[in-house]
Amino acid sequence: MKTGRIIALIVGCALLLPGLGMLLGGGGLSAAYAAGRDDDGYFATNLDRVKSRAVAVTTGNIDFGADRGARGRVLDALDADVRLRVSNASSRRGVFVGIGPTARVERYLAGVSRSEVIEVNGDRAVLRTRSGRSAVTPPTAMKIWSASASGVGTRQLRWKATGDRWTAVVMNADGRAGITADINVGAKAGFVLPLALILLGLGLVFTAGALVLIVFGARGLSAHAEDEAAPSPEPGAPAAGLRPATSGVQLRAQLDPKLSRWKWLVKWILAIPHVIVLVFLWLAFVVSTVVAGFGILFTGRYPRGIFDFNVGVLRWTWRVNYYASTGGLGTDRYPPFSLDADPTYPADLDVVYPGELSRGLVLVKWRLLAIPHYIVVGLLVGSSTTSNGRAGLLNVLIVVAAVILLFRNRYPRPLFDLIVGFNRWIFRVVAYAALMTDDYPPFRLDQGGEEPVAAELVPDPVAPPVS
User: Is the CB of residue 75 less than 8 Å from the CB of residue 162?
Assistant: First the structure.
């Protein structure tokens, strides 16, 4: 294993998560910028019917993290603006909305009953009320506000955010207790779109670089220079060690004749290093599948380098599953850290390179045509995403096999054949959904450790001519 490939794999894994995070963040900001703003360009949310018996409803301490000497320097560059719209439920009573320095607002409301917004759940504000006097000097008479608006009906305040600590206040214009108001909070900033584009650009660079490094590094795991120099098999040719089969996905498993009674109890711990590597490989698998989808859409072919990498990820996953998980616990031999085919290992997998692929099927295979198979796979693997998640059929069969192995020191061959058959079905569906083949997975349970061999058509013998 070359040191450079190890370093490439480590660096690629380290770059992949921040790259995907920046892509998701940039994509989310771009979508919000395009569809989440109102006609004035504000991102807005409504707090419907805020009720309080206090004199004032206030926000918490809004701290922009700048002292007075540096006030506004950063925020001015970011061009951030706040808009508050307040409608009093009583059309006969004036409403006041204002924003002022926290210290001055605290002095003004000292000893007065007030409700502070501590949380916002959807369109509902959660308030925490402090007791105190039920009246105060009308807010319109105070000179503490950086921005304010008052009057009957809907009042609107716009404020350009600057450094320091600020508090927003909603009150009755006469300073008396009892508030019932609908509040709309809006914000806009000139940095949102540039930040979204920067995140998207950096995310693409990081993710593409990580994908290249992971593919380069992972393909070198346990690979020798002579193997890398070997020519790629022709489309449709089976991998070494696998027989021509009835499906483009070829899965093989060989049951160890002398399995340990107890080792299955700790295999899942021993496999943790593989699981850590596979987490990053599957992230790369998802990204590379998307890239391959565009390649198929425009060229009709699955990029060969990406195809070989994705087959390697499936192969690696199958070996680890077979050793320690739902693959069957059928071997005590530790899986190799490799994407390459290994005919000597008791479990192997290959997908025949398809050559030409349908461009149209790219858009419907994984999200429409495969739905019936998703239902079957869901029954096999079960669900544990919720507190009442159910165990899949494979999990139950694995437990049965493990218990029999523990107490009777044997692995029933019919049970082994059934478990491998179920896994063969799952990997066929995964390969189809990952656009690696146009052959629709058969609704057929091919049991046993070997793939069913494709029947060869032998022509009928020709009768000799009659003389």
Answer: yes
Token pair 């290992």: residue: 345
- Positions of the chain with pLDDT lower than 50, given as ranges: 1, 64-75, 222-232, 240-241, 384-388, 456-458, 467
Q: In the structure encoding, which two tokens stand for residue 389, read together?
A: 């998640």
Q: Which helix (H) or strand (E) is 183 found in, with range?
A: strand 179-189
Q: Can you give the pLDDT at residue 220?
A: 55
Quickly count: other Cβ atoms within 10 Å of residue 238's Cβ. Answer: 16
8 A C-beta contact, residue 351 and residue 249: yes
Q: Determine the Cα–Cα distance for residues 171 and 145; give it in Å rounded to an integer.
A: 13
Q: What separation in angstroms does the CA of 343 have from each of 11, 296, 317?
A: 30, 30, 16
Rounded Cα distance between 258 and 261, Å, is 9
Distance CA 280, CA 448 (A): 31
d(CA 451, CA 441) in angstroms, rounded, equals: 14
Look at residue 87 and give its three-state secondary structure. Answer: strand
Strand ranges inside 53-174, DSSP E: 56-58, 62-63, 80-88, 95-101, 114-121, 124-130, 147-151, 154-160, 165-172
Of 69, 97, 77, 76, the residue nearest 164 (C-alpha) = 69
- Of residues 275, 285, 426, 286, the one with CA closest to residue 337: 275
Query: What's the rounded Cα separation, in Å, for the pair 301 and 298?
Result: 8
Q: Report pLDDT for 384.
A: 47
The span from the CA of 87 to the CA of 206, in Å, is: 47
Q: Phi and psi dihedrals of 17, rounded to 5?
A: -65, -50
CA dist list (Å): 370 to 36, 61, 431 = 33, 52, 11
CA pair distance 95, 179, nearest whole angstrom = 9
Please name the helix (run of DSSP H) or strand (run of DSSP E) that holds residue 25, with its range, or none: helix 3-35
Pairing of strands 114-121, 56-58: parallel
- Cα–Cα distance, 169 to 106 (Å, whole number): 11
Please give the pLDDT value at position 288.
Answer: 87
Residues 6+ apart with CB under 8 A from 200: 22, 23, 26, 27, 30
Q: Which of 142, 130, 51, 67 is nearest to 98 (CA)?
A: 142
pLDDT on residue 266: 94
Structure confidence at residue 354 (pLDDT): 92
Q: How many Cα atoms occupy the beta-carbon half-sphere of 242 within 13 Å?
A: 28
Give the pLDDT of residue 190: 79
Whether the model clears a pTM of 0.90, i.e. scores above it, the answer is no
Distance CA 95, CA 169 (A): 11
